[in-house]
Design a protein that fits this description.
Length: 226
C-alpha cells in the first residue's frame, strides 16, 4: 500500500475546492474530483472515506487559513480539532486591539486590515461554497459557525468588555456591540459579495467604508460624558 503524503492530500483538497465551487456540493462527486485530479477514486478514498469527509476537511482548512469575513472567519487559538493555528494575518489584526490605545484609531486600523485582507472575491467564493453545502448538511454549517464565527467574535467582544471597564465605551452588552460593529462595516458591501457581484475593493473604498462604520459605531457607544 502506498504511503499517504501531505502533498498529495493538499493536491486533492485544492482540486476538490475547485470542483465544489464550480458544481456545488450536491452535484460534485468523488469521481468528478478524481477525474479532475488525474487520479483514481481509490486514491481519494484512501485519504477521505466519503465526499462529506473531504468537504468537512475543506471547511476546517478554510476556517483556519483564510480568516474569512471580517471577524466572522477569525479562528480561535484552537480551531476545529486543536491542530490548526491562528492565521498570521488574523494574529496581526487582533494584536491591534489594544484597550490602552485610542478607541477610534484602533478600530480604524483593525477594520481596515480585516476588510482589506479578508473581504475578497476568493473569500466570498469559499463562503458561498459552505453555505450551499450547509443547506444539504446542517452539520457543516454548525461546525463552521461554531469554530470560526463564534470564536472570532469573542476576541472583539472581549476587547469591548475591556473598553467598557475603562470607561471608554458606555455600559452595554458587549456581545451585541461586537455584532453591531461587524454589521455596520458589512452594510455597504456584504450582500454584493455573497451574490458574487462585488469587485475587489480599492484602498480608498475600504478607507471610506471603515470611516463611516467606525463613526456610526462611536455615535452609538461613545460614553455620554465624552
Amino acid at each position: 500500500m502506498r504511503t499517504k503524503t501531505n502533498a498529495r492530500r493538499d493536491a486533492i483538497l485544492a482540486v476538490a475546492k475547485q470542483v465544489f465551487e464550480e458544481y456545488g456540493f450536491d452535484n460534485s462527486s468523488m469521481a468528478l474530483i478524481a477525474e479532475r485530479l488525474g487520479s483514481s477514486k481509490a486514491t481519494l478514498y484512501r485519504y477521505f472515506v466519503t465526499k462529506e469527509a473531504l468537504f468537512m476537511e475543506l471547511v476546517r482548512d478554510y476556517a483556519s487559513a483564510t480568516g474569512g469575513k471580517l471577524m466572522g472567519l477569525l479562528c480561535g487559538p484552537a480551531a476545529m480539532d486543536g491542530e490548526h493555528p491562528l492565521p498570521t494575518e488574523a494574529m496581526q489584526a487582533l494584536s491591534s486591539l489594544n484597550p490602552d490605545g485610542d478607541v477610534e484609531a484602533t478600530l480604524n486600523r483593525f477594520a481596515t486590515e480585516i476588510i482589506g485582507k479578508f473581504y475578497t472575491p476568493e473569500s466570498y467564493a469559499g463562503t458561498r461554497m459552505i453555505i450551499a453545502a450547509a443547506s444539504a448538511n446542517p452539520e457543516i454549517g454548525r461546525v463552521f459557525y461554531t469554530n470560526s464565527h463564534v470564536l472570532g467574535m469573542r476576541f472583539v467582544e472581549d476587547y469591548f468588555t475591556q473598553l467598557v471597564a475603562a470607561g471608554k465605551l458606555r455600559p452595554c452588552d458587549t456581545k451585541l456591540a461586537a455584532n453591531q460593529f461587524r454589521g455596520l462595516l458589512e452594510a455597504e458591501f456584504n450582500v454584493e459579495g455573497l451574490f458574487n457581484v462585488l469587485e475587489r475593493m480599492t484602498e480608498a473604498q475600504v478607507k471610506g467604508i471603515v470611516a463611516r462604520g467606525v463613526d456610526a459605531f462611536m455615535r452609538i457607544y461613545r460614553p455620554q460624558n465624552s
